[in-house]
Amino acid sequence: MSIILNLFLTSVEAQAGALDVVAKFGAKADLNTDLSKPLLDAWKEACASPAPTTIVIPKGTYLLSQATLEGPCKAPIELEVQGNIKAPADPKDFKEPKWVSFLHVENFKLFGGGVFDGQGTAAYKREGCEKHDFCSNLPIVRLDFLTNAMIQDITIRDSKQFHVNLLGCKNITLEHVTVSAPEDSPNTDGIHIGRSEGVKIINTDIKTGDDCISIGDGSKNLDITGVTCGPGHGISIGSLGKFANEEPVEGIKVSKCTLTNTSNGVRIKTWAGEFPGTVSDIHFEDITVTNVSCPVLIDQKYCPWNKCKMNAESNVKLSNISFKNIHGTAALPEVVKLVCSGTFPCENIELADIDITFNGPNGPAKSECKNVKPKITGKQNPAACSTPVPENPTPTV
Ligand SMILES: *[C@@H]1O[C@H](CO)[C@@H](O)[C@H](O)[C@H]1NC(C)=O
Ligand SMILES: *[C@@H]1O[C@H](CO)[C@@H](O)[C@H](O)[C@H]1NC(C)=O
Ligand SMILES: *[C@@H]1O[C@H](CO)[C@@H](O)[C@H](O)[C@H]1NC(C)=O
Ligand SMILES: *[C@@H]1O[C@H](CO)[C@@H](O)[C@H](O)[C@H]1NC(C)=O
């Protein structure tokens, strides 16, 4: 009898399919009880369930020391975060360079309007860095090797380093994700994509201290649309060529994005000298810039902090790249800068309908080109490639 009752209850629960971490696993929204164990217990149960299951973190503010939520799971799994989840503020409280990590999960959805708060203020000041290992590699929300996943209506703020880091993902959509960190927070990229395929980033708002979106090697078939960025360093492919054996970057479309007060608009950056690589089939289209320092940029002399041979040519080959309908205002006169490699000149580059104005001293607006002969169509303001690149260009970050 009791076995039958148990089976009956289990099946009712599986049908309902929702596991509340507070009601069922002892989580407390008191900023004192660590959410880690309740969340991991709920994950373990959900992941083992043969029926689709949703874990719910209700409204309230929680402290979470660290959690790695790992698959594979038996059925689709969802995490509905309604609450505000805070990381430990002190970087020394971390034993590993990660905070919330989703690993090897298929058919996964993260949603719910909640917040992941990295409490990065102390880390930005690099306080106590001499005493622990993770100052240059501090915790982030990691999405590692996820397949068929959706991240929707989630805020990630004040991460200690990159906000969202994707590695090895396939078919993943990030929609209505909000990233927010101070303009002067170091190395706080909004969303970093590496070695992933079929990534969509849709209607997402990013304010941060580094790249809003950065795209590393091995990224293929990405669609980025409706993103607002600023403050920040813009939407960047790269940097590439710093390491050996980097995989090609190909098939990236960035469209209908708005950048405001950023140091770059859309750019591709590869290190001066260093290792080979390829970047192809990249299309930037319908981009609005307001007060952006360098709106259109190919920088194959990327060499921040003088950590390379500035005179060496990049060994990364760029081809089949278009910049179409990019308009607005710049904060510096160099509004278009295509600095390609002398060893591997850029091939099949297109500039179509560029209309960017600059009002300030040191004007008028300039379009600088080197080792590239772009195909030019439509309106060009300023005139395309009107100015040679100076011998010692100012390094960008
Ligand atoms: C991609 O993932 C979504 C879930 O986010 C799923 O609905 C869709 O079927 C997947 N597409 C393919 C081709 O597997
Ligand atoms: C332009 O952006 C910079 C930050 O990059 C900001 O300091 C400045 O006030 C902005 N100017 C206008 C007119 O918005
Ligand atoms: C851009 O900077 C100006 C001046 O600092 C500020 O008024 C404006 O709100 C900023 N815009 C955004 C979207 O950050
Ligand atoms: C660039 O485009 C041309 C013509 O569209 C195509 O033949 C070539 O394979 C492409 N190159 C790369 C590296 O994708």
From TrEMBL:
<protein>
    <recommendedName>
        <fullName>Polygalacturonase</fullName>
        <ecNumber>3.2.1.15</ecNumber>
    </recommendedName>
</protein>
<comment type="function">
    <text>May function in the depolymerization of the pectin in its walls during pollen tube elongation, or in that of the pistil during pollination.</text>
</comment>
<comment type="similarity">
    <text>Belongs to the glycosyl hydrolase 28 family.</text>
</comment>
<keyword id="KW-0326">Glycosidase</keyword>
<dbReference type="InterPro" id="IPR006626">
    <property type="entry name" value="PbH1"/>
</dbReference>
<keyword id="KW-0134">Cell wall</keyword>
<dbReference type="InterPro" id="IPR011050">
    <property type="entry name" value="Pectin_lyase_fold/virulence"/>
</dbReference>
<dbReference type="GO" id="GO:0071555">
    <property type="term" value="P:cell wall organization"/>
</dbReference>
<dbReference type="InterPro" id="IPR000743">
    <property type="entry name" value="Glyco_hydro_28"/>
</dbReference>
<keyword id="KW-0378">Hydrolase</keyword>
<dbReference type="InterPro" id="IPR012334">
    <property type="entry name" value="Pectin_lyas_fold"/>
</dbReference>
<dbReference type="Pfam" id="PF00295">
    <property type="entry name" value="Glyco_hydro_28"/>
</dbReference>
<dbReference type="GO" id="GO:0004650">
    <property type="term" value="F:polygalacturonase activity"/>
</dbReference>
<dbReference type="GO" id="GO:0005975">
    <property type="term" value="P:carbohydrate metabolic process"/>
</dbReference>
<keyword id="KW-0964">Secreted</keyword>
<feature type="region of interest" description="Disordered">
    <location>
        <begin position="376"/>
        <end position="397"/>
    </location>
</feature>
<keyword id="KW-0961">Cell wall biogenesis/degradation</keyword>
<feature type="active site">
    <location>
        <position position="233"/>
    </location>
</feature>
